[in-house]
Fold these 4 entries.
Entry 1:
Amino acid sequence: MKKLGLSLVLVSAVYCLSLGTIDLDNLYNYAFQYIPDYIQLDNTRDNAITDEGATLGRVLFYDKKLSSDNNTACASCHQQEAAFGDLNTLSIGSFGLTGRHSMRLVNARFSEEPKFFWDERALTLEEQTTQPIQDHTEMGYSGEFGNPDISELLTKLDTVSYYETLFELAFGDSEITEDRIQLALAQFVRSIQSFDSRYDAGRAMVNGDPIPFPNFTDDENAGKKLFLERVQFDGNGNRIGGGVACASCHIPPSFSIDDQSRSNGVFLAANGFDTDEGITRSPTLRDIFHPDGSLNGPLMHNGQFTSIRQVLEHYNDIEGVTGNASPPVLDARLKDGRFVQKLNMTEEEYAQVTAFLLTLTGEDVYTNEMWSDPFDADGGLTIMGGNPLSSSNLESKNDVEIYPNPVIETLHLRNIPEESQIMVFDQNGRLMANTQTDGRGKHSIDFTTFETGIYFVQSQNMNGELIMVKRIFKI
Ligand code: HEC
Ligand code: HEC
């Protein structure tokens, strides 16, 4: 009993210290997250996510030092609780307001359209990541108006002690370059994924989107059908049947925008009087809603719509909203020949499409610590681990192998040095399993009945000495 009490203290210490701390011996699993097999898209190219690179990316993403006045981080405008978007219509940067609404960053890795920003001006995510840093309004390292440029940022970060450790961890030496900042930030952004929605639960049960999902209500299935199916027109732009064809541009199962999409007719600039016609990208339609049912911020590049009802009314009667008689770049999919579409949606149809869009929201992405702010309330960050007393060194000294991680059913341990006690704790330090090995060096633990989440597997020898602690993900 005494031994057990001690280990609980130890494990909770590992867990609780995580605020304001990066534990080099217990990096989060960014590299091998669960991706459903129906998701085939991936814009990773040659910058594969590593736990080390994404950990550096996480620190950079939350670090206000990336702005010239030390006031703005990426996370100032891309907030975890809003699916990495912003509840404000325009975001507050170091030197003013942004010109467009901040984009949610969920599932940026899994997009049909490889280019980034509302107007697709960044060819890759890597290229995108240092543009806000160099934007005068956003983070200030513009080199314009007497402001410092990005080379001065690199010099500044050189004097920050945790970056020496973190760049070395990610890239093998502590040199800080713009290229490396881009790689690490892009890895972190790509790691932000959301696949635990009710839509995903349903999609996994059937063999394709058109089939009714067993876990959906009738309205949600009807909304899905409307979202997926083509419009039937009368030849003059009036819908006389069929669906409302959102899926022709917001393509399931990623719900990312088609790379061929042109404008959807929202031409008004965010300032309310200019036009902003080059908008052809949208973030995924996943997680436009927060799990509590509120929107994760206003919608479209100008934040013009504050409810899904307004969005649907826009598509229902495009001319009416924009006041534009013959929109020049309106996507042909929103027209019937030369006539702009009139969807004639009923009250019931509005409600059904809304019910379906609500199923696209996950939960984990809003709270998972791996994407949260690593700094403490005073902006401090402590790097721990990587020293001789730490768990991974214990682990490597003893060569205990634990696999697979993440685990679905059975966790295997190999090269256990001596007869020992193996314990599994959940995130709250609750003992989930406690067994003894037989001294032959191998051991298996059944994880089938455990809920999805983070667990700590710990082994100690018969004298109560800790042999290793390892963070394991159950999926
Ligand atoms: C001051 C607010 C602000 C800050 C700071 C900021 N962003 Fe953004 N972000 C925006 C806005 C606004 C847009 C859309 C801009 C546009 O399209 O013209 C955007 C777009 C993006 C996109 C494109 C998403 C897509 O799907 O196309 C990515 C990725 C992104 N930001 C990442 C970052 C990273 C990484 C940082 C930190 C280095 C950062 N942002 C800092 C406001 C901000
Ligand atoms: C022709 C392609 C196309 C079709 C069809 C289409 N959209 Fe869009 N959608 C876009 C584009 C482009 C944007 C970005 C426009 C902007 O921000 O100005 C967008 C933006 C959105 C947004 C805002 C996303 C955000 O993060 O702010 C929502 C919500 C949306 N569409 C829902 C729908 C629904 C629902 C339907 C079906 C009724 C639909 N769309 C049909 C192209 C399309």
Entry 2:
Amino acid sequence: MSEAPVPSRPKSAYNNWISVIGAVLAVGALFSFALLVAMGFAQGDKNPYLGILTYIVAPAFLITGLAIMFIGAWLQRRYALRYAGQRPDRWQLDLHNPNQRRHLYILGGGATLFLLLSAFGSYQTYHYAESVQFCGEVCHQAMNPELVTYRKGAHARVDCVECHVGSGVDWFVKAKINGAHQLISYTLDNYDRPIATPVKNMRPAREICEQCHWPEKSLGNLDMTWDHFLSDRKNTPYSVRLLMKMDTGKDGDLHSGIHWHASPKTKVEFYATDRQRQEVVWVRVTDSEKGTEKVFRHADFLGEPPMDQIRRMDCVDCHNRPAHDFRSANDLVEEAMVRGTLPTSLPGIKRQAVQAMIQKEITTAAEAPGKIADHLRGRYKDAAGVEQAIAEVQRLHAENIFPERKADWRVYPNNIGHKDWSGCFRCHGNTLQTAAGQKVGASECSSCHIILAQGKGSDLASLTAAGLEFKHPSGSYDEELSCADCHNGGIQGK
Ligand code: HEC
Ligand code: HEC
Ligand code: HEC
Ligand code: HEC
Ligand code: HEC
Ligand code: HEC
């Protein structure tokens, strides 16, 4: 090593250490990319997260590797130009140099390991990224409430990606970017609790839902019954049976009645000031055939809505919980009472069960069973049926209330009706008007449904086709109030 360094002229500017490392990275990434593409083909490429790995993560590494290669070559060339013939190349590979040779062996070993690891890593990551499993289970802390509610819904067999990621290049890319963002926030543990609605990033619902549903199909009425219990000692039952006016078919229109909003001919657009679309302050209806337009607005909203925030109403503005229906404590308890899984022989069980579920002291899922048991034992001691009631309320809690994630019906409104949330009354009712003072149509109780029967026992034995006046089960109240001013899915009044 005593000889004077021999100035050398690299054959290629890429013949230097920095570029070699960059090349190793790039080849590794290319290798993973090829593997991921192959896996995508094999699996039908249904999984958006596989897409993220394939089209975002692997290319990012590839580009970084290539960039390092070019930087190495650039430095090498600059160095060679400046010191041409005077000094040995700083970064050049020289296989005659034992020191460099040793480095090369180490690098070679490292590169092989890197290739193996990236192959293994992509395979493993892919494995975890399998559709519903990844979306719901691996990200379980983040997504678990959605998965649990989804499994109980009518769409439990519809993959997450069917609704959340559409087919077609543009939606694919949107979902990729959005998905990558979610992965990053999940990794950094700074995702929202509760997770905010992704509605803006979803495909237009008609495209999703109409793969399976034909809105034209629900011509006519839909007969629905709700069974309730009051929160008195007797658990007094109260049922209401409604005929929903789905599509009255008037004027030869394809849609009228409730599914009128979903008719291809109708265009209802609205602007809500909040992300959850609860505070609607502006609505525009365009009749494309007649060429007419009507704008309804809230008295306090004077400006124009921002163009990019105007949303065209579609299926998920009413059916916003087709897959993640976080049921309210009130509804869950009543349903269990109807089924008989919660013994109605326990006096005031409606009230106690709801209260046990919504105790403020429950801050983690793990402490729920104990606190629920304490609450109910405190009220009923060892009355018959207590153990059954405790087990049932614990189950209902576990499947519908997720304290750590702050996810339950209180933060995820269901827009289909109007009892516990504003729902239809976001637009219907008295708050929105045209300049001429016209209110959004269908604000009478009987415009959307008629009451066929209400009450209990023999009250329900006969139906009134013409419809009944609503008899509120706890007596009359100020007509100016809307149902959701009092009802919130917990226990009302008293
Ligand atoms: C039938 C369609 C459909 C399917 C299937 C579906 N979702 Fe959703 N999801 C929705 C809609 C619609 C919303 C928006 C609700 C809103 O804005 O009110 C949503 C919202 C969400 C949210 C935001 C939080 C919330 O509850 O609003 C998450 C997270 C989510 N979905 C995850 C999933 C996962 C994970 C799966 C699969 C296990 C899945 N989704 C399957 C339609 C679907
Ligand atoms: C892959 C097919 C498929 C897609 C896509 C789909 N659904 Fe459904 N949906 C079904 C099936 C099947 C049922 C009946 C399930 C049952 O009877 O339990 C159903 C039931 C329903 C019901 C009534 C039953 C209930 O309990 O909710 C509504 C409302 C509904 N879907 C709305 C939607 C909306 C809104 C979308 C779009 C966001 C959608 N569906 C997308 C297949 C689908
Ligand atoms: C204005 C709100 C609204 C819009 C928009 C809307 N629906 Fe509905 N839909 C309802 C109501 C209300 C019911 C009655 C069931 C209920 O109250 O739960 C219903 C019922 C249904 C049912 C169940 C019918 C049955 O026979 O059981 C399906 C399926 C359905 N809608 C699909 C759709 C699809 C698909 C779209 C979009 C093309 C859509 N809906 C748009 C309000 C709406
Ligand atoms: C985003 C605002 C909005 C929401 C939310 C909304 N509607 Fe409407 N709805 C309208 C507008 C606007 C009209 C047309 C009013 C007019 O022309 O006077 C309308 C009309 C109707 C009509 C009369 C349709 C006909 O045959 O002409 C019915 C019935 C109806 N809505 C039911 C519902 C039900 C049920 C819900 C809740 C599940 C609901 N609406 C939610 C905006 C809304
Ligand atoms: C804009 C349409 C619309 C108007 C107006 C309307 N409703 Fe409803 N109502 C609905 C829909 C849709 C549902 C079904 C909710 C669901 O599927 O969970 C419903 C459900 C109900 C229920 C059953 C809810 C339950 O949980 O027991 C009652 C009771 C009821 N409405 C009473 C009334 C009364 C009283 C009025 C007048 C003050 C009224 N509604 C006005 C659309 C309307
Ligand atoms: C002024 C407050 C108030 C308003 C407004 C109100 N309710 Fe109630 N409601 C109550 C109280 C209090 C009870 C009795 C609660 C109990 O015994 O559990 C009750 C009970 C009920 C019940 C049976 C028990 C339950 O919660 O399931 C139904 C169904 C109901 N109301 C529907 C409605 C509907 C629909 C509207 C709107 C059209 C409405 N209420 C408006 C206060 C109100």
Entry 3:
Amino acid sequence: MTCWRRLPALLPALFLILAMAGCSSLPGRPGLGPEVQRPSDVMNFGVLYKQNCSGCHGPEGRGGPAFPLADPVYLSIVNDATLRTITAQGVPNSLMPAFARSAGGMLTDQQIDAIVEGMRKNWAKPGILAGVTPPPYSAPLGDPKRGTQVYQTFCQSCHGPGGKGGAKASSIVDGSYLGLVSDQELRTDVICGWPHLGAPDWRSDVPGHPMTAQEIADVVAYLAAQRPKFPGRPYPGQPSRRRK
Ligand code: HEC
Ligand code: HEC
């Protein structure tokens, strides 16, 4: 039928009609109402979090492949400036992207503030560490040799000998894992645990025997020392080959 044969030619016109039907105003003239919000106008925490973070950090801040942000212990140890900087600039050599426009992302500074505020409002429990002196959020690496002993005392029961995985928890020494995770993230994992998965915080790896700040720094150094020198190079020792 001729009419079908003409369809391709008609498509642009059809598209134009549909597009115009969807517009309430001509370009440049203010519309009747804010039917479609510009992405930079979205300030609602739930929407911003869902669109930008939930794929990795999980819906509601837990249950994703990346660190559970909806952890009140974490939120009482990390400060707003740090949350803001990490969200804005991302973490180099990891899968955490930069979100600030100034760093090539899509979010305005106001939107990043709204996310940080929203995390606090929705997920923090002020006073949850009342009477406790938590280890500092960040600190230099300790001594990897001492860390071996610390690992055996506090971690091996779950992560197995040498960190290669055990009955209760997975490997934390795979090159592909260590190559993509920062020292700070390892530290955060040790201090805060992954509570919804049964990973304890620094106080309860060994019940009644909280880890000292030194022990934390040492065990992080022990893990960091096992990071492959050239992450992403599949055959260690081989010179990297560049494609032309
Ligand atoms: C593509 C996956 C991905 C997305 C999307 C993502 N993150 Fe992350 N995020 C990560 C990873 C992986 C890390 C751990 C980085 C490292 O190794 O330090 C991380 C770390 C973080 C940390 C630091 C945790 C710590 O140890 O203190 C914060 C805060 C954070 N992300 C916030 C956000 C926020 C807010 C969003 C949305 C605006 C977001 N992330 C989106 C993957 C992601
Ligand atoms: C009671 C068991 C238990 C103990 C003790 C424990 N962990 Fe875990 N850990 C877990 C579980 C469960 C997870 C999350 C799921 C998984 O990785 O298997 C986890 C996650 C982690 C992660 C994040 C892994 C990832 O995939 O991002 C790191 C790093 C880690 N633990 C390090 C340690 C270190 C270091 C110690 C000792 C200081 C320790 N853990 C003690 C159970 C434990």
Entry 4:
Amino acid sequence: MMKKLGLAIVVGSALSGPMPLMAHEPVTPLIAQACAGCHGQSGEGLGAVPRIAGKDRAVFIATWEAFRAGEKPATIMNRIAPGYTESEVAALADYFSALRAEP
Ligand code: HEC
């Protein structure tokens, strides 16, 4: 009985409004979720995939455009980059440049 009551309270509070955001648990925008499988949930990098969290915004965009143009050697990003509009790339750059994931 007590267990059931506890669960009801947890579920109730989860549904009752926006949860307070934890500083170490940023809510990843939907567009950036596409990157998480390779770059890590917080852009921290995974194995051979480079870290993108905290990357300078202007450098992020310049790197992206170099991928798009085929000017920067790449195994995969040259195929991903053309699929995003300029404003989407700006949003991704805003998001990842502002992230401060643990190294
Ligand atoms: C399938 C795996 C994969 C996905 C998905 C992916 N990346 Fe990458 N990313 C890589 C790899 C691997 C590299 C290294 C360059 C290469 O080989 O293409 C890279 C490089 C980069 C770089 C350059 C980093 C540097 O410092 O040189 C940026 C910026 C980047 N990715 C951003 C993104 C963003 C933003 C997304 C989501 C829209 C994304 N990537 C999705 C695998 C991925």
